[in-house]
Every structure is written in C-alpha cells, then in structure tokens.
Amino acid sequence: MVNQEENRIIASNLAYAYPEADRNAVDGVSMRVKKGEFLAILGHNGSGKSTLAKLFNALYVPGEGTVWVCGMDTREDELVFDIRQHAGMVFQNPDNQIVATIVEEDVAFGLENNGVPPREIRVRIDEALRAVNMSEYAKKAPHMLSGGQKQRVAIAGVLAMKPDVIILDESTAMLDPSGRAEVMSTVHRLNEEEGISVVIITHYMSEAATADYVIVMDEGKIAMSGTPREVFTQVERVRALGLDVPPMTDLADRLRKDGIGIRADVLTVDEMVEEVCRLSSSI
Fold it and tell me: How far is CA 135 from CA 125, 193, 241, in A?
C-alpha cells in the first residue's frame, strides 16, 4: 500500500505491450491523478491513451512498473474487485454497458453482484439517478433513451458503487453534440459537487479545455502535460502530435498571425468575446 491521501491514482514507470506488438503501447509513463482533479488525456489513435485508461481500472496488468489505485496495487489479483469499486469506468458505447431492460435494474446490477443489502441498493439507485438527473426515467426501458441519456445511466451505474474516480474512455465519441453536452455537464457537476476525481480520454479539444490538467500521449509516452492553457497555447507543437486545439484557440492563433494583438491563450467563446471587446474599445 502507498499513501494516497492527495492522490487517487499513481502510475510509476508504467509499461504495457500487446501480444506480438513490436513496441509498448504504454512506455515508461509516470503520472498522478489527484483527489478531486479533472484530468484529460489526449492523443491520436494508437498513442496509448485508452490502454492507459484500462491500466488504471485493472483491466490490463502492467508489464513493467506499477499502478496504485487508492493505495492498491493493480497487479494483486485479490484486490482487482476492490480497485474497480474505487475506480469506475465508462466506455465508448453505452449499449455495450447496459445489461437490464429497466433503467433502475441496470443501475442496481453491480450492487446486487456485490451483495449490497436490498434496502441500501434502493437508496443508492435513487441517489445515483438523482445525481445524473435521470430519476424520472427509473422505470423506463434503456433502449428507448437517447445516446446521452444512456450514457448518463451508465455513469449512474458506476456512481452507485460510490467510486473515488470515474474514468471515461471516449465516452462521448458516439454521441451527438447535445448528448456530449449532457454527459460533460453531468461529469463536471459530479467532480465539483461530489469531489469525485475524473479522468476523461477524449478526441474533443473543447472537452479537454475544461479540465484542470491535460496530458498528451504519443507513441506510448507523455509528450506534453500542463494546464489546458499551458498545453494549447503551444499550437504548432500540439498539431505536430496529430491533434487540433480548441476552436477559439485556433481562431486566436490565426488572428495573431494576421497581426491582430489578441491573447494567445484564449480557450473559450466567452474569452474570445472579451478579447474582441477589448480590442474594439482601443480603436
């Protein structure tokens, strides 16, 4: 065990290779997920970001190095069950996670398998559905829900287990903009109000821009890390890694190249509006 009062996940010199692969999918990664942190992990396809997420949840066991989740070593088989209670995972396709024909029964699935008493199960179902604003759908059939609603049900199933960390592996990739907004709003609220640490693996730079900290993976290694502002203001370096930057950062970069004196670290529409107003008032 390691002391993790301020850290939910600690990875030390982590390496993992798929069978018959000619290189490590994750190669020498050391990092931490702090208590209450919202962390975004980025990278092009094949960069190792989803493999890293699965190592955090003990779906994969490190070939080298160590992952501690809330003080537990993921290499210890007898701890895997406990690890997955502390670090819940939400995957890309919500249809692959939903196992019951009624929403509340799906949320109860993990609790029942854990032997949680029926009275406690009822309380946890209600709390979890309320937390993701899906209480009114408790008796509905999941196949009747939108993609965003299904993903919120999947999150509720994880929440019912009372995790310290939620790991979302491309969980908004199959959703339309409305569904993505629903899920991101829910996850941010859980992070801010419940203090749950969040790790989000995403291709959407606008989602990463809302994180506390960003890690960029490339060929299994950490290529960049820092706050969203620190990372995304390095526009050319981010693009060289096969990624884009948030739309407003891209616009600011284009304007600066045209000689307009706008801040380089603009991330959001509101910040861009402020800059335009500032520039207009100085004319």
Answer: 9, 18, 42
